[in-house]
Specification:
Elements: H1 3-12, E1 15-16, E2 27-32, E3 35-40, E4 49-51, H2 53-61
C-alpha cells in the first residue's frame, strides 16, 4: 500500500457491519476509488488487506458455505 493510498483510506473512514455487535471481534472496511481495504477492528493500526472492488463484491455476494 502506498502512502497516498493509506492516507486516502484514513480520510475515508472505516465502517463495520451492523451485525458485528459490541463484542469487538469484527473487521472494518474502507472504500476508496479502485480499492477496498479491510482491517481487524481490534488492531486498527495493524496491517490492511486491499482488494479490487470486483473481488470484494464477489466475496460479499457469495452464498455462505457450511
Amino acid at each position: 500500500m502506498t502512502p497516498t493510498t493509506n492516507a486516502a483510506v484514513t480520510m475515508t473512514g472505516w465502517r463495520k457491519s451492523s451485525h458485528s455487535g459490541d463484542e469487538g471481534a469484527c473487521v472494518e472496511v474502507a472504500v476508496v476509488p479502485g480499492i477496498v481495504a479491510v482491517r481487524d477492528s481490534k488492531d486498527p493500526h495493524g496491517p490492511l488487506l486491499t482488494f479490487p472492488p470486483s473481488a470484494w463484491t464477489a466475496f460479499a455476494e457469495a452464498p455462505p458455505t457450511r
